[in-house]
Protein 1
Amino acid sequence: MLTTMIVVTAVAVATTQQSSADRPATLPAWMRSQTARHIDYRRGSDNWAILGLEPFARDMFATGVGHAMAYEALATGHSASLETEVFDRINTVLKNPPLQPVDEYAVSPTFSRRYFALEQVFEWSHTLHFQTIDVLMHPGWSDQRKDEEIEKLWKIYSAQPYALSGLPMNMEYLDGFEFSGEFRTRYPKVNALFWGYHWLQTVNYDMFYRVPRNTFASQYEVIGDRYHTTELYNTRREFMPMTAETSPRFAKRFPEIANSFDNLHMLHDNVNDILAAPGLSQGEKQREIELAIWRVLATTHIGETAGEGQPVSLHDHRYSMGMPGMGMMKGSDEEVMYMPGMGWMNMSECGHCSMSLSQNANAGATVTADGWTMAVRCALCARDMAAQTLGRAIIRSATENPDQMLVLISDELGNWTSNIPTVVFLEYMDEHPSCNRWSKAFSSLDAFHAYLRERPEYAGAEPLTLEEWASRNGGEPETYKRIDRPSPYQRSREGQP
Amino acid sequence: MRVKAFTLALSMVPALVIATDHNNVDANRPLRFEDASTIAFGERTFEFGVNAMIGRRNQPVYGLGTEFKYGVGVDQEFGLGIESESADGFRNNLGHLEVRYLRQLRRDTEGAPALAIGIQFATPYGNQGGDPEFGLRGIASHYVGNYNWLHFNADVTFGNNEPRLGFLFGLSRPLGYPRDFSQTLVMEAGLEQDENRQWNAIAGIGIRQQLSPRAVIDYGVLLQGMGQSEKQSVALKFGYGVSF
């Protein structure tokens, strides 16, 4: 299939800033094929495990409807009502999400038939989204087995010609076309919905990855509430949610999948902008969408390597230190990047104390609050970082047992509940650079004492109950380094976030 | 022979698209027409259907049908099924074994409909005997706006007698959109030749209802033999399809 290529009219539509070398002489033949090519998803006992958490499943099903309704309105000339009637219609579905997965082709027949190659890319990538979730939610598989199954899913996904690249891509480049930003400028409410869907579709992976199953529902109470009350309607967001920003543990373990999701979501943004661009004819839109697909296809980047590439180019696959699961963002370099809502960050450092994070995916903790998820170095950093943020929070922290993750959930007042009733903490205040040694969570008192026997320097430390630990606050660590730079997403157009 | 002809007509030719998706219309699920799409490559489905035909001059005839389908290739599906029906129990009429192949030739675009062709071979087995039959079906499906899809099926069936022809026009559209996404309304009308090459009109209406991501039920009413009073009948149909 891939060897058969069709010639594309190489008339450059003068809408992009990129060089003509970024346009292919030919496109893969499948992109203009008149066949349907339906491919079944991988069969297994994990299929539809997502239904084990119905509120989440329904919200995920509704994201597909929301996408499809907006696209159909754009394709059928109803863009004038996108922010009013169409928004209200989508919002009704989001508030009353469907019980079953919905065939997007049926909801957006005009769009899906006109841009069929795009629909295939979307459908195949959404299948990867859902099947990865199914594996993570499987009730019987070990964490090791789930890791292996996800790697198999990636291979199955990558075997198709319409698979998106798992390489990190430069988001500044991909969002730097003449038409870029049109959709978020003209339709901020519906754009917020899109970015809200993409927030939900990426934040869930850390919610499930190596996390006890009996915490899924209580975590989703927090996540789902945030999604419905804030993320769907956040017209102030500066850039689309990135997988590594919302699920850093998953993105670090499966960088190719995280990158492919980000590339998919950027493709959504590109398509939205192209459809909203006022100066393009239907034929030009068709061609620009084909090019947008081509840019992020895996086949376009065969032989290229993560970590390499000409800066701010189509083949820029560099990434910031410590996060191979995210491409370069606007203004970022190998050391720092800008995270909307958090400011400038070094992804290889703790978000609270700026000390280096462990390369061990099972060490340290993450904090989910206010729409972001940050990796931190120790239990103290997690607690104190959460305390600096208004609203509910989730801490996912390693314990001495790699198979037993601690999940703490706070209410609005900062009262924590734990999935491990016997949890105790060590907090033996010392120099902060060694915080990952003197601030830890243990699944039991025995484990606490076993650790102290190996660390005589902490002899005399008392185990802290959850209540005692939660009442403490270490303040801002002396090691914390604030990076004072302005946001790279300055408003350049009226109405642009 | 009449019973056999009816059975074949009911089950004539292959299936739908994705058996577990109510939007994709499958032959006999619950009406005779189908859309021009196969199940997905690698998909496996099992379908089960029952029907009761009430005629003006005959006692009720009950039917059972099961079929296994497999997406043997991209845009290709293979089916193996058994259809049985009898007015006095199934002991002496085990029915017909059917083998089907459906190939989607092109998808629906804004300028041209989706096209598919189906081939079916059916042979009786059991005590009552009968003649094997071979059928071809051409299928076209096109979106016509406002969430309506139109379908056209053209059948030709070869047996011991002269070839018989049949034509069906179908319509499918989601029900309850945009508040509900789990039901599709299907309607059909058409003409078919019987074994004496006389034309009979048929019409039907039905619903396909999603039960779960893997399962769909369907039910409908089919009026047959309109125009020939002695052949008029009403068929009530219920079916269940599941992928595995």
Protein 2
Amino acid sequence: MLTDRLCSLRQRARTSAARLTLGAFFLSLALGAPLPATSCAEPGESLHTGIIPTMGLNEVTEGTLMFRTDQAGRYTPAPILKTDVHIAVTGTIARATVRQEFTNPSRKKGDWLEGVYVFPLPETAAVDHLRMKIGERIIEGRIKERAEAKKVYDQAKREGKRTGLIEQERPNLFTTSVANIGPGEHVTIELEYQETVRYENEQFQLRFPMAVGPRYIPGVPVVVEGQGPQGSGISPDTDRVPDASRITPPVHPSGDGAINPLSLSLSLNPGFPLAKVESPFHPIISLQDQDGGYQISLREDAVPADRDFQLIWHPAPRTEPMATVFTEQKDGATYAMLMLVPPTQHREKAARVPRDITFIIDRSGSMAGASIEQAKGSLTAALSRLTTQDRFNIIQFNHAIRSLFSTPQPVTTKAMQQAIRYTEQLTADGGTEIIPALRQALKSPQDGSRLQQIILITDGQVGNEEELFELLHQRIGSRRLFTIGIGSTPNSHLMRKAAESGRGAFTYIGNVNEVKEKLDGLFKKLEHPVLNNITIDAAGWSGLEQFPSTITDLYEGEPIVLALKADSLPSRALLQGQVGSAAWSLSVSFNPSTAHGGLSVYWARQKISALMDETYKGNAQEAIRKAILDVALTHHLVSPYTSLVAVDITPARPTDSPAGEGDQTTNLARAQNLTALANLPRTATGGQLQILLGAAALTSACLLWTFRRAVA
Amino acid sequence: MSRSRLGSRLLTILMAGLLAIGCWQVGEGSWIYAKARLAQFLLQRAWSRALAGEAMPKPWPWADTWPVARLRMQHPSVDLIVLAGAYGRTLAFGPGHVTSSALPGQEGTVILTGHRDTHFRFLKNVKLNGHLALTGSDGTTLHYRVIEQRVMDSRREAISTGQDTEDLVLVTCFPFDAIQAGGPLRYVVRAERTMDRDHS
């Protein structure tokens, strides 16, 4: 009806009609119709050249030597002749030695290729040894003091030498450039790294990267730097390549059919009895030796490296915590790793210890946006896990503090309703005064018969760190503090240290989608502490250095790992603690039966991180720097004050080699710190869009006004 | 007649609605720009307190940020007070210093972020070898020379902040004239520390 009316109106006022259409267009804009695509688009995919597709460093899924192509940022993988890997797992640390052989497949004289070696490291891994053999040259990674390393680097740079091209495209990608490689020359790269084994869903996991990617297949050509796409005569694709005259035949004609053969061996010393060891993608042979270790190798001598190797081991079911010790003798000192492993099954009959939980939630301005939403989500998830024997309280703070109850209250339907309503109403605004809130939480009376847990949810933008640690130190008592870091840039250091002072743990949640998964893990943990107040009786140990210095509680599903160093270790030591309110003790044997590698490195890393924490406390910088340098240089570790530098240690340089001078030193991983761009805030306002939409709405209003007058 | 009156009433309501939406949106949009400009004046005072040695001088009592540096450039003419913390809240008032990066004068890379349509709009006109000056809260001015300008994809790439470099990295959204906020691209300007000490 109205439409009819409008139609007739439109006929009567044609000029207005045109304007109306325009108005409607603006109106649709104003009502939030999708805007025409802005130029925020992704950069276009690079073209593939040749038959072997070129790849970016980001696409590397296993240790690869890559040749530069004429396209910036695109590389051709070098043919890999073989890979030997040995991994030694001791407790929760894995030490991998990788040896790879590559070749420059070109036979044409003068075809010197420039290579980049890329190895995707597991998240917690760091390379500490590197040795490259390029034809006659030997290049070795040496740990040097940062200033010295930089001097070497700068000098090489001044002299116009190709210094280390470190293109760290993403974290944990080890990259080093491997100067010029002559035609037919072989490159051998040996790399050692140490990582922490992943523990998830009650199983331990180790992964070695050897996944599918664009790779060398005998009989298929390689793109050579600076010359664009080239093809090989064998491949049927060559007729597509116009420049067939400059064919580069491959070095290895396919013989046995094995492509990129890889051999892998592994010695596994988990430190506890296993239910089973499995490798989901590769058939393995696993032999158990007398002291509980396993020797594992691939069933075939050399397998095609076409998928990641993964090893999973499951602890055998146990109902008691157990302790295991590994030792290593090095340079006159004894290093040990003491692992305290929780039982795999909690005793159902064991009564759940009632808990007092105090949630402290930060609602300051810096939490605005996704952070506060994450925090609220976490809080709601946590509330839903409480039981009627527990007591709880919620404290919220910005520049002022407010709490739901004055002291923790029993969980009842009414209290729960109140709490949920309270949580939903939280909005982020104002300053961050964390200390009064914490003080309020620490006011509640201590009660030895209950687990008293404080859960602090914040982005940790706190000024006065010292006062915070001081407060925790004095007042925490038997309580435990768990910190949950939220948002794009939480002050992780502060929160980790605070949790450490409060004998709890720090959990970082950077992504809204991770909230549930991570917190479920944390809350499950909090419900089932296995052992509290653990101490180690260290009487009679000379020169003992232990990290971490205070032992946290033992929770289900997560072993406690202690790194120890002493002049000599006693044969036995006593661990003491509490199960619920009952005393518990365990005698541990320190017999140095078999030697294990990597323990000193592990200890040194722990020591460096403990020393680094000292600097945050504002202690004498210079003394700490010296101490860290000392540890890092002794144990060959990359640290804030040391770098790994590649030094050419070739005994005699071949005189006729044009690349001989090419690369005397390459700077390797300069302890790269990276700030992921994704963690930075958005840097555009909606102001422009709002003004535009507003203007559109106003214009439409004007048009309607004229239209109405025309009609009237 | 009643039909036409109904129609005209509807039109009036629609018009009033559009007027209200228009004013609201224009007002809110302009407020963003006004705030960005006005705040810088207020920040000047807090900055002089910072220079006088006050730790964390809050520009207004309920603020959860404070000035940490002053960024200046001659061509194009820029004078900005940099705030602590790079959050949506602080960026409305001034460029933000990324807490995990170094502060001016410390060892390591300094990372600053700013809105591409307010404070960091000037990055569009910054040229290679352009000269930037950054004053820390201790009053010393460091000089930088622009060595790299590039567009990065925030979903994949990262900024290297090695402790042995003393670079200054400025980050803003890209493209500069996109209407919608929130694209994945970032415009990253890297400037290298030049050795000349303060001579201003």
